[in-house]
Amino acid sequence: MSTSTPPRLRCSAEFAQLADQLWNGVAAGDEYAATEVVLRALDDGLEPESVLLDVIAAVQGKVGEEWAANRISVAQEHAATSINERAVAALALHPAARRTPTLGRITVACVDGEWHALPARLVAEVLKLRGWQVDYLGAQVPAPHLISHLHTTKADAVALSSSIATRLPTAHAAITACQAVGVPVLVGGAAFGPDGRYGRLLGAEAWAPDARTAADRLAEGPLPRPQVDHQQMDDLPHLADQEYTMVTRNSDNLVRTVFHALEDAFPAMRVYDDIQRERTAEDLAHIVEFLATALYLGDEKLFTWFITWTAQILVARGVPAQSLPPALNLFARELKDFPRAARILQRGVEALTTAPQTTTGKPA
């Protein structure tokens, strides 16, 4: 690499080309071709952080887009993600990525129940490159194990990742537990909203939209020390109405009741085969999960985003989305004694009548 050209100035076209090459390897399921793209880039002198974020992360974003548009299957999406994870591992072992820790210690973990580990892994590797000592705990870390680790390591902060919004109640418990032992929390991932609103709502000390911003924030100085007597109810007083608890506790019965009633409300379901009926039951379960999460957060917009996104995903797969309003109305009938739940479901029906049938979108 020419010393006269700073890495940042040569990124855009070259990284786009590398991302195309990596995508070709990932799409073909060729682990060797994919990792070769990454290793060759490092051998050529490209900054490891930029290869991580401007190449590998960019390709992972395309993997998600291709799945949403129904151009790749769930199995292909999993295979592609696994190859990207191995590309990250290959980069981490390259001599160009070796750093001696000179800063503090950070624990990076995914919320319990969150199996999308690649975003957290990217954060961990970027922090290592910036000079932090990093304990990367991976996917689905139960809060008790996380707290035990913090007691052992005396970490300066926790970087907590979640991609799925329905994990937010669990994330809240983990945030509060970390704070109770005096460790501040930086959160990130799609679950916390595009502007970090749910991170702030749940009391995290900081939020970052991506690995680079997370590293920049930690470089600015220590996170604020948490209040060790902070309680979950301090953030969400509306939970006193018990709607979240009751919906969560009765979720299986709700799904079962609405599934059987949907055949009358949506006659096309009567000719569904076994696989279609199974998928319908899964969709109903997801609706209840997001309804419960919206109740927990006190945020109707999360549910309306989810239900319009679900309609877009169904349309991309050639499945009519007309079954969604009848299902929401049936849920509302079962939850008529729960005013917040009924109102959220009504907002979902209203959103379906105005939403464009595309496969893009993020929480509002």
Structural notes for this entry:
Helix content is 59%, strand content 7%. The protein has helices at 11-27, 31-43, 48-68, 74-93, 118-129, 143-153, 168-180, 197-201, 211-220, 232-235, 243-249, 251-265, 274-297, 300-316, 324-334, 339-354; strands at 105-111, 133-141, 157-161, 185-188, 206-207. Strands 2-1-3-4-5 form a five-stranded parallel β-sheet, with helices on both faces. Mean pLDDT is 89; it is low at 1-9 and 357-364.
Quick one: how many beta strands? 5
Separation, N- and C-terminal Cα atoms:
42 Å
Radius of gyration: 22 Å
- Give the overall shape, derived from the CA principal axes: flat
Element-by-element helix/strand order: HHHHEHEHEHEHEHHHHHHHH
Class derived from helix and strand content = alpha/beta
Poorly predicted runs of 5 or more residues: 1-9, 357-364
Q: Give the overall average pLDDT.
A: 89
Task: List the strand order in the largest sheet.
Answer: 2-1-3-4-5
Please bin the fraction of helical residues: 55-70%
